[in-house]
Design a protein that fits this description.
Residues 2-115 form the Formamidopyrimidine-DNA glycosylase catalytic domain. There is one protein chain. The chain is of the alpha+beta class. It has 6 helices and 10 strands. A 4-stranded antiparallel sheet has the order 1-6-7-5, with no helix packed on it. Strands 2-3-4-8 form a 4-stranded antiparallel sheet, with helices on one face. It is elongated, with a radius of gyration of 21 Å. It starts with a helix and ends in an 11-residue tail after the last strand.
Amino acid sequence: MPELPEVETTKASLTPLIGKRIGDIYTSAHRLREVIPSDLDELVGAKLVRVVRRAKYLLLDFNKNGSPFRLLIHLGMSGSLQQHDALTPRKHDHVIFGFDDTSVRLHYHDPRRFGMVVWADDGERYLNKLGVEPLDDGFNTDCLYEIIHKNPKRPITRPIKSVIMDQSIVVGVGNIYAVESLFMSGIHPATPAHQIDKDKITLLINNIKLILTHSIGQGGSSLKDFSVGAGKTGYFQQTLLAYGRAGQPCTVCHEPLSSIKIGGRASVYCPNCQPFNSSA
């Protein structure tokens, strides 16, 4: 699934289209997670003025004769926004935006159809319960510690990996980035959140920010279906230290990496560098 770095990379790829007007729009008859609006052709003649990322959503702002329009796009499990000169829809192209003054067309491509292209007002409920952005200054030691210990009598006892992947707490830290951040921090992914002290929380937050920033710089992780621009892929997966490496030697101590499932997701870790300690 495209996560925060992949969506941020997609956002950056749209920069050359800002200031251009929609010339034509194609929509398929397939339903995505939400029905594709039947009135998307209202955007014909509208200028793309801004692209914003919120969590794993993209918000595209348009203006048409002084009237604002805003689209909400989510890439789902396998979606991508690709730019091609092709006029004919390819298999799994569900929305295509043509732009004036350029041969480039923006293709919303989604083989598994779990994504969405909707008017922002109709998709507002998806944004209302999102947590803090991990690259914002507001995501810091005090923030996460307060969330975990907000109720001293009932602090969060879930595994720390589940906590940092909870979109209502912090957005965009998907499985790849959670596994890598915990490995770099020396924290076992199953450690109960309330048993992690402030020093370790500081280290974890710093590593989350570091890894996400590095991944954005590498164009994201091109695992399975993700690509961007004209079908280009990212390179961050080539630098992974733990994710997908179960059974291979740890890059630090050379012991074999292990894997457990937490919340239904594979969690690779080093038993030596990330020992489980119920009193962490």
